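User: Is it possible to get a 3D structure for a protein together with its bound compound? The compound here is NAI. I've pasted both below.
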Amino acid sequence: MASYDVIIIGAGPGGYVCAIRCAQLGLKTAVVEGRETLGGTCLNVGCIPSKALLHASHQLHEAEHNFEKMGLKGKAPSVDWKQMLAYKDDVIGQNTKGIEFLFKKNKVDWIKGWASIPGAGKVKVGDETHEAKHIVIASGSEPSKLPGVEVDEKVVVTSTGALELPKIPKTMVVIGGGVIGLELGSVYARLGTQVTVVEFLDAITPGMDGEVQKNFQRILKKQGLDFIMGAAVQSVETLKTKAKVNYKLRKDDSDHQLDADVVLVATGRKPYTDGLGLADLGVEMTKRGQIATDDHWQTSVKGIYAIGDAIEGPMLAHKAEDEGMAVAEVLAGKHGHVNYGVIPGVIYTHPEVANVGATEESLKEQGRAYKVGKFSFMGNGRAKAVFAGEGFVKILADKETDRILGAHIIGPAAGDLIHEVCVAMEFGASAEDLALTCHAHPTFSEAVREAALACGDGAIHA
Ligand code: NAI
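Assistant: Yes, that's possible. Here is the predicted structure of the complex:
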């Protein structure tokens, strides 16, 4: 048994970042993690491996579609799937070992095993009970289940199984046109799989700016993904190496079927709190099964905190990281703060899609007067030079004050460009502030400036 200032449960982006910050602030810190490697879902079976496969498959796409245009002749490369998976695993290994190194460097103990909380101030792992002044639950999330659909991680898979399929399937049905479905659907479509996305709603990526949704779907269609919209999946039958997806079209209640070699279930995730003993402790939960917390991430039980996917808010690694750092500050007697109004969202397809702040739809709902500055990547020289002229930057600003309220980008490096707007929003900047900032030429980020200019007297290259 050991005694700590803080024990954190879970070594995903929320937990490991929280641990490092706690240690930096002088707190004796341990993390309990039952997986073989640190990094949680994000590093082991989520963000990082999917980005490796997105990168590899994008290179193939470039070779097949754009090399010849640039005078790079020769046959496009063929895919050695085993090697591609090995590359992905190597990337995972480098990252998870990196966290192990950071733990050693910062003197964070890794308690290996699965934790339960027998009472405030106590964390049980195996036969040992450790003591801690503060406990932070950073246990993350797991794929939510769809009634009538049995996941076997072979034919019917979640994102975890989709990252290690034994071979590239000929056909794939993706249930859910959200972030996971579209990122992994893109990977397989580029590798030659016929991908059909079956989505319950009439638009993909729920909650995103409507104009981006439409453009994004059009671009993905052009890349070969098929969409069946307004379709509720009822059940999936597994037949040895194939599956049959049964769905109902919502507009007329008609029944339909689709065959596929692999079915990817990507209909959302839910908090993972199994085995922690929260009910016995009397920890309050929200109606949606998340751990309820106050403004300082403390649960209804004093001394027990929670962050990341296990609590309310977007299920994003960087949101968990920010909460992890903030809660560490609180535990060290400082002021922890997360600006929930400025959390970017990124979809790592090609082109990338990124957003921050308000959508036009949400501003209309609030009855707020706003203006729109939009600029197409077609007017951006750098984008055109690299076959990335599709998409646009859209900035929303307050009609009276010109203060930036939100931004929506679909286009090259959108996931990086968005941060310029995030910083501007953190500082309460106006669109004019962005427009008056000198942007290097030729860069993709000039499109952000042009969109900011379009909020005022007009973009130059439109
Ligand atoms: P999601 O919530 O983004 O999308 C799920 C989709 O499934 C929705 O469009 C929904 O309408 C649809 N759906 C639900 N039930 C259905 C049914 N019976 N038939 C047809 N469609 C149905 O969830 P997703 O993609 O599984 O992602 C889970 C979480 O992981 C999200 O919170 C996401 O933010 C996060 N994530 C973030 C990434 C990123 O930031 N790049 C990457 C991957 C995941």
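The longest strand covers residues 128-137. DSSP finds 14 helices and 22 strands in the chain.
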